[in-house]
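Hey L., structure's done. Input below.
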Amino acid sequence: MQIKLINIGFGNIVSANRIIAIVSPESAPIKRVITEARDRGMLIDATYGRRTRAVIITDSGHVVLSAVQPETVKHRLHTKETVLAEDEEQ
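Output:
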């Protein structure tokens, strides 16, 4: 299995294969997920002190906070998959 990495801002990279969801931090349930992850020691804050714009939930239970918009992360993920698919065809 090939490891795919995605830039989530400020030089921080996560494994694209492990991402379950990329969501906005605005709703109360997501705020609760963030608080619970912090309490369990499973929160990774990659915002560098900036406002959290995307919350990335992984299959390992880690919750990653990013200062990049969810749409931007999605676009980077989709672009990476497209490039990899084209490379595999060649």
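Strands lie at 5-9, 12-15, 19-23, 43-46, 54-58, 63-66. Helices lie at 28-40, 70-89.

-- N.
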